Amino acid sequence: MKTFTRFFGLCVLLLAAVAVPVYSQNLTLDAAIDEAASYFIPRLSSGVRVALVHFEAPTGRLSDYIFDEMWKRFEDSKKFVMVDRRNTDRIEAEIRYQLETGRVNDDQVVSITKQHGAQILIYGVMNSFGQEYRLTITTTEVEKASSSQRPFTVRSDNRLASLLISSPDDEVERAVSVMARTLDRRTTITIGRIIYAGTQTVSSLSSWLKNGIITNAQKQREKFQVATEGESSNFAVATRGMTVETPVVNTNIQAVISGTYSPLDNGAEVSLQLISTQGNKAILASQKFFIPAAELDRRKLSLLPPEGNTVINKASFEAKQQAVIPYSGTNNKWAFTITPDVLDGIYYDGDYMTMQIYSERDCYFRIMHVDVNGITQIIYPASENDNNFIRAGQTRRIPDNTRYRMHQPFGEEMILASGYDQPFSPNQQSGTVPFSAAAVTRGMTVEKKGSGSPAGNNTMTPSVTAKFSYTILPRM
């Protein structure tokens, strides 16, 4: 399985002149941890501030065990000042975030570690190799940006076997627990979108993860206060996408748990982040875990959204994502967004949808709907009663004359919005067409309202575009 090797490997590559590895062979897990501590403790200067971050391992339970045992040995040596565990979690979260966004470099890693008062950073990774495992531990001296690394070969025993058994429910519980302990006070949170990486797509896996996060967050009463549905809805309205800007309504939500999941050959990797809604929207904590394919099958969880009574095939899913690239907003001339009233992008049979559209400048807009079956239709403006003009800096709630009700067939649908600096006639935009890249592109050309100009003679392309996707699921 793919794990967090990239995190530790990049830290080594970026920070270190790494020592030539010397393999200690065929040890039990506890013996490997003992030998690692015995090797590194004498080699580090007395009185330095040491920070351990969680070890990458096939399961969260194994990662926690290695971390706790290494921490105990370093602390019991009475040779070092141990950095507070909440700070080590924050160091880990910030470095992981930098790696995931591709912005990490050696100066940033050193800076992050220094900010939390550490002089020595200790981390590691445990990977499987056939019937054995390799535990590689690295210590980095922050001031000198130099590292020492030592690998250990670990044989399977009863303790290791027990730590390798972890259900997805355990992994979600652990992830929430780790995020909770980074906080120093009770924090009101809501659950944001948990999406297929690189898209806005949510699925049955998204819904399952959300429910698991809420259940476990409610157990962490000293650290988490889970917002009500009404508070979460207000927060969704007050924020445009996951970029928290000046709210249009008051909310008490202080942080959001959002995430992504990525397909692997034998399952899915889930990445969760606890993001502050205050100040610079800092990443407070970050956790990853793996869900085996067998567990996804057993729970009937899909990474892709439903399409009627089945799951959309990957080719159709990718074609759909490709077709709406013109609505990505990449070439927008000003800020223009459209977002649903639910933060997680999930609606259930019978729910009603509203959406928020925002424009930095005066413009005329239209909204297209792509349904589960790939039928595209303009839903706003749909009649002469619809006012599709929006003033600069205004946020409009749509619909205003009708209601949008969610119903079968279940699956992923899309909302595509475009803004123009000229008015256009809604009468020429009615009707449905099959969804395709060509249809969407053609749909981006609207007819001007010109005095004496025959319909269709004058056309223009949008100045701005925006989109979101959402998933309709059967009500539990």
Question: Can you describe this structure in just a few lines?
Answer:
With 476 residues, the protein is α+β, with helices and mostly antiparallel strands. It has helices spanning 5-15, 29-40, 60-76, 85-100, 106-115, 158-163, 168-180, 204-219, 229-238, 293-298, 314-323, 437-443, and strands at residues 24-27, 49-52, 81-82, 120-129, 132-141, 146-155, 187-196, 224-226, 255-264, 267-276, 283-292, 306-307, 310-311, 336-340, 346-348, 352-353, 355-359, 363-370, 375-380, 389-390, 394-398, 404-405, 411-420, 432-434, 446-447, 459-460, 464-473.
Description:
- The chain is an alpha+beta fold and 476 residues long.
- The chain folds into three domains: 5-163, ABC-type transport auxiliary lipoprotein component (Rossmann fold, 3-Layer(aba) Sandwich); 168-303, Rossmann fold (3-Layer(aba) Sandwich); 321-473, Immunoglobulin-like (Sandwich), CATH 2.60.40.
- The protein has twelve helices and 27 strands.
- The strands form seven sheets. Strands 15, 18, 19, 20, 23, 24 and 27 form a seven-stranded mixed β-sheet that branches. A six-stranded mixed β-sheet has the order 1-6-5-4-2-3, sandwiched between helices. It has a five-stranded mixed β-sheet with strand order 8-7-9-10-11.
- Helix 7 packs across helix 8.
- The longest helix has 17 residues, at 60-76.
